[in-house]
Amino acid sequence: MSGRQKDELEGVTLLGNQGTKYEVEYNPGILEVFENQHPNRDYFVKFNCPEFTSLCPITGQPDFAAIYISYIPDVKMVESKSLKLYLFSFRNHGDFHEDCMNKIMNDLIELMDPRYIEVWGKFTPRGGISIDPYCNYGKTGTKFEQIADHRLMNHDLYPEKIDNR
Amino acid sequence: MSGRQKDELEGVTLLGNQGTKYEVEYNPGILEVFENQHPNRDYFVKFNCPEFTSLCPITGQPDFAAIYISYIPDVKMVESKSLKLYLFSFRNHGDFHEDCMNKIMNDLIELMDPRYIEVWGKFTPRGGISIDPYCNYGKTGTKFEQIADHRLMNHDLYPEKIDNR
Amino acid sequence: MSGRQKDELEGVTLLGNQGTKYEVEYNPGILEVFENQHPNRDYFVKFNCPEFTSLCPITGQPDFAAIYISYIPDVKMVESKSLKLYLFSFRNHGDFHEDCMNKIMNDLIELMDPRYIEVWGKFTPRGGISIDPYCNYGKTGTKFEQIADHRLMNHDLYPEKIDNR
Amino acid sequence: MSGRQKDELEGVTLLGNQGTKYEVEYNPGILEVFENQHPNRDYFVKFNCPEFTSLCPITGQPDFAAIYISYIPDVKMVESKSLKLYLFSFRNHGDFHEDCMNKIMNDLIELMDPRYIEVWGKFTPRGGISIDPYCNYGKTGTKFEQIADHRLMNHDLYPEKIDNR
Amino acid sequence: MSGRQKDELEGVTLLGNQGTKYEVEYNPGILEVFENQHPNRDYFVKFNCPEFTSLCPITGQPDFAAIYISYIPDVKMVESKSLKLYLFSFRNHGDFHEDCMNKIMNDLIELMDPRYIEVWGKFTPRGGISIDPYCNYGKTGTKFEQIADHRLMNHDLYPEKIDNR
Amino acid sequence: MSGRQKDELEGVTLLGNQGTKYEVEYNPGILEVFENQHPNRDYFVKFNCPEFTSLCPITGQPDFAAIYISYIPDVKMVESKSLKLYLFSFRNHGDFHEDCMNKIMNDLIELMDPRYIEVWGKFTPRGGISIDPYCNYGKTGTKFEQIADHRLMNHDLYPEKIDNR
Amino acid sequence: MSGRQKDELEGVTLLGNQGTKYEVEYNPGILEVFENQHPNRDYFVKFNCPEFTSLCPITGQPDFAAIYISYIPDVKMVESKSLKLYLFSFRNHGDFHEDCMNKIMNDLIELMDPRYIEVWGKFTPRGGISIDPYCNYGKTGTKFEQIADHRLMNHDLYPEKIDNR
Amino acid sequence: MSGRQKDELEGVTLLGNQGTKYEVEYNPGILEVFENQHPNRDYFVKFNCPEFTSLCPITGQPDFAAIYISYIPDVKMVESKSLKLYLFSFRNHGDFHEDCMNKIMNDLIELMDPRYIEVWGKFTPRGGISIDPYCNYGKTGTKFEQIADHRLMNHDLYPEKIDNR
Amino acid sequence: MSGRQKDELEGVTLLGNQGTKYEVEYNPGILEVFENQHPNRDYFVKFNCPEFTSLCPITGQPDFAAIYISYIPDVKMVESKSLKLYLFSFRNHGDFHEDCMNKIMNDLIELMDPRYIEVWGKFTPRGGISIDPYCNYGKTGTKFEQIADHRLMNHDLYPEKIDNR
Amino acid sequence: MSGRQKDELEGVTLLGNQGTKYEVEYNPGILEVFENQHPNRDYFVKFNCPEFTSLCPITGQPDFAAIYISYIPDVKMVESKSLKLYLFSFRNHGDFHEDCMNKIMNDLIELMDPRYIEVWGKFTPRGGISIDPYCNYGKTGTKFEQIADHRLMNHDLYPEKIDNR
Ligand SMILES: [Ca+2]
Ligand SMILES: [Ca+2]
Ligand SMILES: [Ca+2]
Ligand SMILES: [Ca+2]
Ligand SMILES: [Ca+2]
Ligand SMILES: [Ca+2]
Ligand SMILES: [Ca+2]
Ligand SMILES: [Ca+2]
Ligand SMILES: [Ca+2]
Ligand SMILES: [Ca+2]
Ligand SMILES: [Ca+2]
Ligand SMILES: [Ca+2]
Ligand SMILES: [Ca+2]
Ligand SMILES: [Ca+2]
Ligand SMILES: [Ca+2]
Ligand SMILES: [Ca+2]
């Protein structure tokens, strides 16, 4: 089979592994990386994650969200199965929606040191109101800092229609 | 449970509270804030509020709207249950659509002193015409003033399709 | 102008009337009727009413629904502006969703004595769950009783997709 | 050119005619027919007519609707350009929604003597409520009478979602 | 390669053939068949054909439609590339919409002698009105005759929303 | 406030209660009922529950589903907040999709002894395939047994389009 | 009732008035204004008007459109009921689509002297083609002139999908 | 963890197994079953399989389809991961669309001996036409034979809109 | 009838004309213009043309597309009925999709000498792939040249979802 | 037949060819070009390719994606049938999603030396997460390098809604 070879996948231990453990306490240590094969190019990778759930820090009630993560890799790239397990680890974690999104972005910056990254969470409503936090980041001292400012300035000029149904 | 702790939630009295009172006369005093844990970052929080109702100031007829509120917090952040109760307090308030949206934005600026905020109301039609006011604001003397101008200039270039059904 | 004449509209006092009063306490007395001009034919009339709001009987929190009312008239037909005012009169009324729908149908049966009627309410969620009650009725001792059974038996085999957004 | 020949189109005077006159007073005399070439087969023809407008008989305010007409022809079939002109002739006609639909069906029965016909109007809202009348008819003393009953009994078990936007 | 073998495809001359000729005059002789491998089972095959175009018999103006053909095969099945070429042969054919649909069904009955077949054309509007003819057929003296009646009786109880856009 | 009174709500302890406990181990004991005020009428109540999550019994991986529950009440009706808490209690429960749906229906039959009930779960895919179990039940020895058979026979003739995006 | 008071509504004579007259000859004199209460802020007001109809200047055939009007008010704001009556007055007016949109914008500029305004008409097709004119305007010698240029330059980069159905 | 236990999963060897082999030659031997825990109840299980691909038996060109499989289990139920691998095994299999669907249904009948089963494939177009075969089956000599007839007779009365985009 | 007068329509010979001839060989000579009444304003006119068909230059197979044409007029404006006839004249024309779009734009530039124009064709797939060419043009030596560059640079950042169904 | 002539199609050997071979091992040598007839104009060509499938490099499991390729041609243009065959050649190729998209873009740059190109892949989920890589390129030392930066900076500000169904 042509394509990326085994020895180009060092550090990837979870993908294809039988004994996968699904942690349910917040644990950024689960995250794994592999190497970017196209570091001379700026390009985007987006993860669509519609199966996110955490707990309300006040009431303990489960919250649900779809999370969209987009980033421009530098040297390291997050492996998607480890990302899945990391997001599952919020299952018993209590935090405000706004804090969860910032925390996820901080962890991925810490892990990959990406050129650019953004995280958008779209939660289901409680009491008729839903909350959608969005944060982004560009590597300090690079053009990606300006890109982050530009994308924040133009963020969500067209809010999607919401009717709670 | 990991995450934001109780002592980081001072001033939040309504969330999880049993004896919630649903006021039906306009009352901005209901609004409560908590502290932004990520003040060194510019990020957006959006509230989707499709259950807004007020009264026509001339005829007394109930009006209905979906309201979308987006802001970049500075130090204070509005707590969502108090926002819900505040919006419910328009239930017996009579005002033109345009005035309601400006009033809500003024109250939230007064409450949070945010870096940036915008409010978009999308009302149901009367006599075949519906009205959608949009206002925004950036903190005077900061880059957010320019961001507000930029977003107004690019507002709603793609009006959603409306057929009154 | 051709069409239905003024003298065929006796009893219709609210449509086109300037001093319309919007009552906010439940009042079936608002309802008005006019005469069916096609009584020798069975036909359906549907009202789409997406601006219904009432209160939770336990917490006082406002509830919101779209209500769909379909009926086959006999001699009397409900006038639509009076129906609008009647539905608005639930604005400060506290009742379970299931009870509201049954009450509306009972009032319209009392008013019009229709051959057949059905009422379907589709509410917005609270705590992640939404409730959609449906009731119907066929005039006792007529074929419409069987029609009511038939329509109940075939009710909502294809629930619409709900994701709370 | 193969297909239906000129001499099979007697009675069709409006289609392709330059001097078309657009009447704006209700006039069923505009309607024209041509001959059914497949009378030994029961089949449906549907007209989608989303550009219907008439006047409110009380207030004179314009009303708008999409009308769906379906029929099983017997000997005569209504020509579509004449149908368009007939529907346009309601432009200055004042009538209740329910009466317009019954009148259209009566005129088409008078014109074509069809085996079966149904007419469904879907109007835009006034005061937050919209009205959708539906009537149907099967030729007396034929199986189409039972078909009309069957279709009425199963009419609109799945009302489309309406939110007035 | 497993699956249907070459010798089970006698009579199929167009599929995979380089010198395909696209006729533009109505020609049912193009149609080819292959043998049904599951004759002991009643099952449906549907063709979705959204690229149909013919001419108006009066004005010569091109007409456009999506055609949906569903049938239950008996011994012979129509090969899809020959069906494509047959439908393309209406390109310069002038006929009323209702006649085109009946003609297509007649040709396919002649070709395949199917147990059941139905043809539904959905045309684009002229002058604000669009026409959707539907015809069907069940083999005489079999249960499929009753099936045809049943399907006609239940045809299109939910007309799709049309707004000419 | 008019409507259902406090003394008609005996047994409802969770709705409006501050100290709500969110159990995460399967527990049908959470469920509460209130009394049906319209027992002489057959009518439907539907719960839309798009926030269901459980665990795979083999791998421990979280599963996600939207669940639609429809029933015709007899004497008792399930209170919606208790239903929410009950469904949340599957959060750490491991079972096949098919078993979860049957278990939920069994518990609600045990709780309410309804005239009729059905439960439809629509899960997110694993490995490109998603599973949607549907079960129903009519009270033995009543017409609702036949209604259950009728609804099963007509279940899901129009599968919704799924593309895993 | 809190909100805008009667004495802040001088000049508004049509809203809530019983004897509304629906003119059917083009008449910009119908338009009324009220005073902007937030003149120190640039904000948008959009009117969705899906019930527009006029006549073809050549053939007299009725045309139908949805019109979207967005403006940034200066001192005066157009009252929505008078706008409705003004748009209804095109009912017997014959003009090309492009001319209607420019005329409406000219009349509203004359009436309100707004900071910015744009008008977009989306018509139904004739002969398979539909026409959507869009014009805009910024007050001469102000930044709104540049805003108009900017919005024209970025107009409709994503044409909506049209299939005439 | 509550729920189905390991010893109730005999015969399930693929789910959660690390060394999964993806066969690309048609192989029904991959399929595995587990035991139905609710054999006294008739209920449906549906598999949504939008990632099906096979080859054209004439040209070798890849074909793509979404397949929907619904069945009422008797004693055995097909395990979903083995179903995934089985469907993947068509990857290099050449067969007509109609034959693939019949073959899949035959294999599942052979495997599970279900009370009822149906298979619907919806393929992408070639040359502007797409093909959607549908077959079903009820166990001979049981009521499910009649259910199969009933469902075939009512199959796809509302073909989805297809425009090849 | 108010509005544009006959003497302002010189050169328009096809609109409303009875003897319309539908040419089927490419002929830009069909195109007609009328005079722009608002030459001091930059505004857009868009034509939605979903009924375009041409032939493949290699195989002769018919191709189908929706074409979107937007332009800013200078002195002359294309009359829409002549545009319809011009586009119909591609019916027997063989060309690559990319060449058709460029040719249409070239012809309209030649005809109208517009300030700005763009043409976007969206074709149906062949062999699973569809092609959508887009070209634009701004008058040389004017600001519209920069506008063309700007619009090309921002073209189609959000490709519509295509699944060939 | 007017349009592009045979001698303007040198190098195109696959289109219309009977003996098409469908390779299933990655092979960029399949790609063919033809000459751009409009080299003095910058314009876009987009290919919608919803039938892409490859293999996971770790597990061998098939992956599925829709790929959108947009480019501004210089001298050479890729012929679409050869593109189809090239994309089909990934059928047995194992690579990460991110690597496939970069590889496709590299091959097309090598083939055509385009002024600008971008490739966006949208994959189906595995374990609840889907991955959408996007890369682009502008010819070094030309304005298209800046265009590539601009388009990357503005990429996907509005992620489409994903719910894995
Ligand atoms: Ca910054
Ligand atoms: Ca929604
Ligand atoms: Ca709508
Ligand atoms: Ca009953
Ligand atoms: Ca939704
Ligand atoms: Ca709507
Ligand atoms: Ca018959
Ligand atoms: Ca439409
Ligand atoms: Ca049973
Ligand atoms: Ca989908
Ligand atoms: Ca200008
Ligand atoms: Ca459309
Ligand atoms: Ca489509
Ligand atoms: Ca240029
Ligand atoms: Ca599609
Ligand atoms: Ca989806």
Radius of gyration of chain A: 17 Å
Shape of chain A: globular
The total beta strand count of chain A reads 6
Per DSSP, what share of the residues of chain A sits in E-state strands of 2 or more residues?
Answer: 25-35%
> Helical region count of chain A?
3
Largest interface: D-E, 42 and 43 residues
Side-by-side strand order of the widest sheet of chain A: 2-3-5-6
- Which segments of chain A are poorly predicted (pLDDT under 50) over 5 or more consecutive residues? none
The quaternary organization reads as homodecamer
N-to-C span of chain A: 46 Å
Bound molecules: calcium ion
User: What does the average pLDDT of chain A come to?
Assistant: 92
**Largest sheet: number of strands, sense, barrel closure of chain A:** 4 strands, antiparallel
Structural class label of chain A: alpha+beta
Strand and helix order of chain A: EEEEHHEEH
Percent of residues in helices of chain A comes to 10-25%
Structural notes for this entry:
10 copies of one chain form a homodecamer. By secondary structure, chain A is α+β, with helices and mostly antiparallel strands. In chain A, 22% of the residues lie in helices and 28% in strands. Chain A is built from 3 helices and 6 strands, in the order E-E-E-E-H-H-E-E-H. A 4-stranded antiparallel β-sheet of chain A has the order 2-3-5-6, with helices on both faces. A two-stranded antiparallel ribbon of chain A has the order 1-4. In chain A, strand 2 (43-55) and strand 3 form a beta hairpin. The radius of gyration of chain A is 17 Å and the shape is globular. Chain A starts with 32 loop residues before the first strand and ends in a 12-residue tail after the last helix. The D-E interface holds D 1-5, 9, 12, 15-16, 34, 37-38, 41-51, 66, 68, 70, 72, 77, 80-81, 83-84, 87, 120, 147, 150-151, 154-156, 158, 160 and E 25-26, 55-60, 92-96, 98-99, 101-102, 125-137, 149, 152-159, 161-164.
